[in-house]
Design goal:
little secondary structure; single chain; two-stranded antiparallel sheet
């Protein structure tokens, strides 16, 4: 998966940053944890909740849900925030994202992230 190069400071969503399932763009996306970039599927909140059926949501405006065992978290089951590197080549590791990348992702709309 390739994302177009961009700058976090521009506060724009780069081309290619869209849900692999429903094709929505301009929203927060999640990805599989510890997966090679070539095999990553990006999922919007609705599709992420469908992918991880044990998680019920809702997802708040910052991209967090309440999980029984861990409390408030930005992870949806085994999915983590999909924060691309600014060169668009890959995605940051869950614990390695620079603060500007976190801020960029948190500012994106969550969308209709309710599980029905």
């Amino acid at each position: 998966m390739q994302i177009a190069p961009f700058k976090y400071a521009d506060a724009k969503v780069p081309p290619g940053y869209e849900c692999s399932k429903c094709k929505k763009n301009g929203l927060k996306l999640w990805r599989q944890y510890q997966t090679f970039a070539d095999h990553i599927s990006l999922l919007c909140g609705v599709c992420a909740l469908e992918n991880q059926p044990k998680e019920k949501g809702p997802i708040d405006s910052e991209g967090n849900i309440e999980m029984d065992l861990v409390g408030k978290t930005c992870c949806i089951g085994w999915l983590v925030p999909a924060i691309p590197t600014e060169d668009g080549d890959t995605f940051w590791g869950y614990t390695s994202v620079p603060q500007p990348g976190v801020d960029w992702w948190r500012k994106l709309p969550t969308g209709e992230a309710q599980c029905s």
